[in-house]
Structure to design on (227 residues):
């Protein structure tokens, strides 16, 4: 391996993106269950044989490939990376065990340090070409359940849109029917404010009314005598 590390295409690495979920990945338990025996650097343990392919995603035909380097020193540019497009899921409990059980220090070191956040920072492309085994147009194939859900969603959307359009048309027709009907209501009369109305009423009474006393005191015409 020391000789292969110095060659431009001496090593091949399979990369898998891991996400967390609720279900436990039983294939990863073949490794996680033995981590407690190699908690510190330079420790070794033998585990029973198992199918390594069970750790990989189901779809192995969709992947990215590029010439890269080792992720640890001396970081030789001698690795052909193959990164699968499909992700693999493990449970949150499995991830927590990986993050809290391993140490970067040796067993006899006074200052022990957990093996956390030891990822390498992203590197510049440096004119590398990244190849893909699939085109951007070839999306993920949908399962029958996903297709059924999409069809039902589209149908419900169409029904909802039809109901809204029908309601709008019905409202417009109802408004138009009221507009064409003749109006039999009398013309509105102008309203007067309270003080002005009382003043006008008072003036009418003053002009049109004559007291009984004035009527009695009115003198009758006297007969004229001839000279």
């Amino acid at each position: 391996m020391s000789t292969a590390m110095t060659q431009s295409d001496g090593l091949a690495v399979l990369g898998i993106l891991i996400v967390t979920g609720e279900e436990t990945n039983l294939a990863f338990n073949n490794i996680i269950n033995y981590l407690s025996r190699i908690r510190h650097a330079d420790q070794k343990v033998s585990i029973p044989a198992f199918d390594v392919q069970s750790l990989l995603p189901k779809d192995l035909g969709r992947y990215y490939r590029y010439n890269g380097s080792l992720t640890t020193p001396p970081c030789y540019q001698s690795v052909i990376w193959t990164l699968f497009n499909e992700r693999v899921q493990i449970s949150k409990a499995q991830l927590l065990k990986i993050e809290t059980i391993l140490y970067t220090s040796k067993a006899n070191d006074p200052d022990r340090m957990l093996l956390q956040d030891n990822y390498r920072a992203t590197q510049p492309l440096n004119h590398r070409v990244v190849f893909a085994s699939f085109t951007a147009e070839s999306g993920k194939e949908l399962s029958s359940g996903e297709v059924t859900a999409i069809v039902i969603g589209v149908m419900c959307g169409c029904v909802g849109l039809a109901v809204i359009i029908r309601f709008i048309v019905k409202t417009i027709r109802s408004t138009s029917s009221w507009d064409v009907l003749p109006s039999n209501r009398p013309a509105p009369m102008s309203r007067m404010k309270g003080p002005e109305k009382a003043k006008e009423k008072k003036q009418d009474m003053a002009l049109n009314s004559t007291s009984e006393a004035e009527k009695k005191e009115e003198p009758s015409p006297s007969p004229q005598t001839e000279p």
Remarks:
- The first helix runs from residue 26 to 32.
- Residues 219 and 225 are 18 Å apart (CA to CA).
- The mean pLDDT is 81.
- The domain at 4-140 is CATH 3.10.200.10 (Carbonic Anhydrase II).
